[in-house]
Amino acid sequence: MSSAFVRYHNELAELMSIHKGEILQCQEIHAIFKKNFPDYDKKYLQPSDHCVDHTNKAPCHCSTKITAIFSRIQRGVYRVI
Fold it and tell me: How many CB atoms are located within 10 Å of the residue 6 CB?
C-alpha cells in the first residue's frame, strides 16, 4: 500500500544514493532534499515512510522491498541503505 502523502520517492532515492551507508538525521535529509528541490512540500517527505524496518500506516511502496531507502536507527535517525 502506498500513502497519498508519499511523494518524491524517485528523487529521494537518487539523492540518497551518494550517501549510501551514512547515518543521517531527519533534518539533514530534509536539508539535502531542499537544496536540490527548494519548492518541495515537507509534509510529503517523511524518511520513515521509506524504511525497510519501520512500520507506518501507509508507507511508500519501497518499504517492503529491496528498493527501501533507509533503515531506522532510532527516532529521527536513519542509515541510508
Answer: 21
**Dihedral sign for Cα atoms in the order 72, 64, 50, 17:** positive
> In degrees rounded to 5, what are phi and psi of residue 4?
-65, -20
d(CA 10, CA 74): 24
Q: Is the pLDDT of residue 35 over 80?
A: yes
Q: Where is pLDDT greater, at 29 or 40?
A: 29
Alpha carbon distance 60, 33 (integer Å): 17
Q: Are strands 23-25 and 70-74 parallel, antiparallel or unpaired?
A: unpaired
Instruction: Write out the E strands in 10-66.
Output: 23-25
